[in-house]
Write a structure and sequence with these properties.
mainly alpha; 0% strand
Length: 322
């Protein structure tokens, strides 16, 4: 009976985190962009500081007509939003937010490989959406999404491998147990590569070429309306939470506080995740979009060599210490 209650409690916590944090990030993006760009619109809904803006957006999406193109593959078209969203729900189960096994949905021995593999499966949602929409522009957007993910999957994996080498384990819980603050100076290159590659995989600015939401065509999601479109947006914000959480766990010590102040536990994890999410929003407002050739050049001529250099440096440090 206790085991059942423990599983049920963990499930409720995971669902609460998954449903609440992406919405908080979405609400924050409204406010931060409004301040940075001098737009007052998101400041009015609901009165004080526009607290009901997110609710207004939800009602708007719910009221929109659910349109399916006449020539679309209806089943795949309707399934694509769930395929894009569910991998992030699975990944969040394996991310430790506090000390001990009780602060994680489930302990996965090969945690790094598990989360990166499941996150990579999310591109299937974009491919399904683009192919099933019976729209050539949507199909091109889906293919560009797949090409972008394949380019940045390698540097992201190499950067994570450097941390696994330093800790001597591929378990996320084990990495946090082995974490030392002196890792930060010589793992900073890996952190940069991991974070930038993660932004590219999420198609966030300045890597939003497949979507280009300031243009007429919205990539693979052009034909989606209403709640189905909202699910793709929720997947994007969930991806931001997952990326920031993984960066926190791998490179910033997770629930470890500075100067041995570990008493706050999961609060440190959420605080670091929130700071990184703000950085992502800030980059969206301040950084122009790259060209496709610049995107590929950055991946293969900059991030991959940097990730390999980080692995070499990690090996040297491990040999010197041992």
């Amino acid at each position: 009976m206790n085991d059942v209650l423990d599983v049920a409690l963990r499930l409720l916590v995971v669902l609460a985190v998954f449903l609440v944090l992406p919405l908080v990030v979405g609400q924050t993006e409204h406010k931060v962009m409004a301040h940075m760009q001098g737009r007052l619109g998101p400041m009015y809904a609901g009165g004080f500081h526009g607290w009901a803006q997110l609710i207004a957006d939800g009602v708007k999406f719910a009221q929109k007509e659910d349109v399916v193109p006449a020539n679309a593959d209806r089943r795949i078209f309707q399934l694509a939003p769930a395929v894009a969203l569910i991998p992030y729900l699975i990944v969040i189960v394996a991310i430790p937010i506090g000390p001990g096994e009780g602060a994680v949905g489930t302990v996965v021995d090969a945690g790094i490989f598990f989360v990166l593999a499941v996150m990579g499966a999310g591109v299937l949602g974009s491919l399904m959406a683009g192919w099933a929409s019976a729209n050539k522009f949507s199909l091109l957007g889906g293919l560009r999404t797949a090409a972008q993910l394949l380019s940045y999957e390698l540097p992201m994996l190499l950067a994570a491998a450097s941390v696994a080498m330093a800790a001597g384990t591929v378990s996320l819980v084990g990495i946090l147990d082995a974490f030392e603050w002196w890792w930060l100076p010589w793992q900073i290159i890996g952190a940069f590569v991991f974070f930038v590659a993660g932004l590219a995989e999420l198609q966030r600015p300045p890597f939003d070429m497949p979507i280009a939401d300031s243009e007429i065509i919205f990539g693979a999601y052009t034909e989606y309306t209403g709640l189905r479109f909202a699910l793709f947006l929720l997947a994007e914000y969930a991806g931001i939470v997952i990326l920031c959480g993984l960066t926190t766990v791998l490179f910033l010590g997770g629930w470890h506080g500075p100067w041995g102040a570990d008493g706050l536990g999961w609060v440190w994890t959420l605080l670091k995740t929130a700071v990184l999410a703000f950085v992502i929003i800030w980059l969206r407002v301040t950084t122009p979009r790259l060209r496709e050739d610049q995107l590929q050049k950055l991946a293969w001529t900059t991030l991959v060599p940097l990730a390999l250099a980080q692995i070499a440096l990690t090996g040297i440090v491990k040999v010197v210490i041992q």
